[in-house]
Amino acid sequence: MALRQKGYQVGRQRLRAALRRRALHALQPKAYTPRTTDATHGLRCAPNRLLDQPKPTQANRFWVSDLTYLPLANGDWAYLCANQDMASK
């Protein structure tokens, strides 16, 4: 913006190439990532009760799930929860 105000015709690629020739780089702000998990909470984790169980042979006996956060294009966040039947996958 400062170069354009001084009358220079500079595009993004030309500026990037000029900076690269001088071994410089532009400072980019870090992308915002929310702190969604506190791994240092000091509480007990729930035990995995399926480790001691035999492999399921019938559908709808054991289900597992996972939850994650997804960034949306408008800057908001959404939850994604995936469920899976351990017998039929």
DSSP strand tally: 2
Q: Report the average pLDDT across residues.
A: 85
In terms of quaternary structure, the protein is single chain
The biggest sheet amounts to: 2 strands, antiparallel
Over the alpha carbons, how many angstroms does the gyration radius reach?
A: 25 Å
Question: Strand order within the widest sheet?
Answer: 1-2
**Helix fraction by DSSP (H/I, runs of at least 4):** 10-25%
Distance between the termini: 54 Å
Number of H/I helices: 2
Which parts are unreliable, with pLDDT below 50 for 5 consecutive residues or more?
A: none
What percent of residues are in strands? 15-25%
Shape: elongated
Structural class, from helix and strand content? alpha+beta
Write the element-wise H/E pattern from the N-terminal end onward. Answer: HHEE
Give the domain tally: 1
What does this structure look like?
- The chain is an alpha+beta fold and 89 residues long.
- It has one domain (1-35, 58-85).
- The chain contains 2 helices and 2 strands, in the order H-H-E-E.
- The chain has helices at 2-5, 12-21; strands at residues 63-71, 77-85.
- Strands 1-2 form a two-stranded antiparallel sheet.
- A hairpin with a 5-residue loop joins strand 1 (63-71) and strand 2.
- The protein starts with a helix and ends with a strand.
